[in-house]
Amino acid sequence: MRLESLKLQNFRNYQRETVTWHPHLNLLYGLNAQGKSNVLEAIYFLSVFSSFRNGGHEDMVRKGADYFFLEGNFQRQSGAHQIKAAFSLDKKRLLKLDGNGKRKIGQMIGHLNVVIFSPEDLLLVKGGPQGRRKF
Fold first, then answer.
1. Residue 93: pLDDT band with limits 50, 70, 90
2. Confidence band, pLDDT 50/70/90 cuts, at residue 7
3. In the predicted model, what is the mean pLDDT of residues 76-85?
4. Distance of alpha carbon 131 from alpha carbon 4, whole angstroms
5. Per-residue pLDDT at 135 exceeds 80
6. Rounded distance, CA 24 to CA 16, Å?
7. Where are the alpha helices (DSSP H) in the chain?
8. Which of 9, 11, 76, 80 is most buried as measured by Cβ atoms within 10 A of its Cβ?
9. 79 vs 127, more confident
10. Gap between the Cα atoms of 123 and 118, Å rounded
11. Range 77-114 burial, b when 16+ CB lie within 10 A, else e
């Protein structure tokens, strides 16, 4: 599986951005607070429809906007696929897989597979047993 492009609208600090990925190697680099983690969060969101950060969907909407929209185009062995997700502050959401609207998140999960490892994950190893049990 390979992510080919990512579109963001009103997501975190991005008003409108399109990223086209190289098929072999991609690096995200920049100064602090430039949006590198936000791009990773958008990809993660298109996979599991929640954030790996604390907070709710409202926190992902760009300040001054009333919605966010994400689109990911990716290749699998079965061919080209597209996932679209949107959330508005009035609690409406849009989920589409290959142009077909979906009502349940369960119908969407598993099409774009991602794994994230963040600094907070080290607490599983370095922290106390209570955190490991909770995990």
1. very high
2. very high
3. 95
4. 36
5. no
6. 25
7. 36-48, 123-126, 129-134
8. 11
9. 79
10. 10
11. eeeebbbbbbbbeeeeeebebeeeeeeeeeebeebbee
**Two tokens at 106?**
């369960």
List the structure tokens of 91: 């609690």
> In sequence order, what are the residues at sequence separation of 6 or more whose Cβ sits closer than 8 angstroms to the Cβ of residue 133?
none
Closest listed residue to residue 82, CA positions, set 67, 102, 65, 62: 102
Q: Is the pLDDT of residue 59 over 90?
A: yes
Return the structure tokens found at 107: 């119908």
DSSP 127: S
CA–CA dist 40, 133 (Å, integer) = 27
What pLDDT is stored for residue 130 in this prediction? 87
